[in-house]
Amino acid sequence: MSQTLTVARNDFRDVRRSKLLWGVMGIYVAFTALILYAEGRATNPDLATALFNQVFLTTLLLPLIAIAGSYLAIAGERESNTVAFLLSQPTSRAAVVTGKFLSRSLLIVGSLLVAFVVGGLIGVVMYPSLELGVSGTFIVLTVVFVGAYVGPSVAISAATDTRSRAIAGAVGFYVLTDVLIVFENFSLVDAVRFLLAETLGLELGQHFYEFVHNLTPAGSYLNATYLIFDPANHLPIEPLGVIPFYLKPWFSVVILLAWTVVPLAIGYWRFQGAELG
């Protein structure tokens, strides 16, 4: 545990000045402030509506922040061979992976809190209520969403030995699990449906394709927002009706947590067997 904390502390000091990370986070903070300010100028401003409008931006931009802050966590040190120096000290490879994950998660969650503080200040000034139940659940769910992209990004970084491969892997993961989920006109689910239903002639039912959508971090996050927003008050959300457990919002949270842990274990397994130096 002490090795993990040492790696996390040293890594946090090194990465906290990342211009790319703070640049993308600055965009997120600016758009958050703009959305809350715009809704706050309405006749009857409603914080839940403002957060609902924030979901699309969060789903699209937050994974970019997580990836920008994590994709070089280990691959960068492998390419420069500084990881060999790190491991020459009494530091295990497990401590390197978990320490890097811990430091990158803390950095991104900490910078995310800046956006929430700015939003909270706007809420205090322009809204009749902060709706702590809604806003608190939104913050917790969004922090879990951060982990679902930091984990795979650190895992990709641990499994690759060059910056270029880490970038390619992280960008590919983002496009496949986020962009092709958020923009439904050209989506991963449609590609799977075309392959299985139209090409192979398999009849798997609508719930199967909804589960494919829910298996991705972005799809899980969107589905989990049913925990926050009531379809009766937000017309773009369709009522869930009678659905199997694997499509329920609570199970989407389980999937998000799995995206945090499972890729990290696979990344450690690849890093453990890699030849360094």
Describe the structure.
This protein has 277 residues and is mainly α. The protein has 12 helices and no strands. It has helices spanning 2-15, 19-40, 47-68, 75-80, 82-88, 93-126, 132-159, 163-182, 188-199, 206-215, 217-224, 249-272. Helix 1 (2-15) packs across helix 6, helix 2 (19-40) packs antiparallel against helix 3 and helix 3 (47-68) runs parallel beside helix 7 (132-159). The longest helix has 34 residues, at 93-126. The chain is globular. The relative contact order is 0.14. The model has no long low-confidence stretch (mean pLDDT 86).
Number of helical elements: 12
How would you sum up the major sheet?
none
Kindly report the average pLDDT value. Answer: 86
State the distance separating the first and last CA atoms: 25 Å
Q: Looking at the structure, what is the overall shape?
A: globular
Q: Tell me what portion of residues adopts beta-strand conformation.
A: under 5%
Number of strands: 0
Please tell me how large the radius of gyration is.
20 Å
Q: Low-confidence runs (pLDDT<50, min 5 residues)?
A: none
Give the proportion of residues in helices: over 70%
Task: Return the string of H and E elements.
Answer: HHHHHHHHHHHH
Name the structural class: mainly alpha
Please describe the structure with a list of short key phrases separated by commas or semicolons.
277 residues, mainly alpha
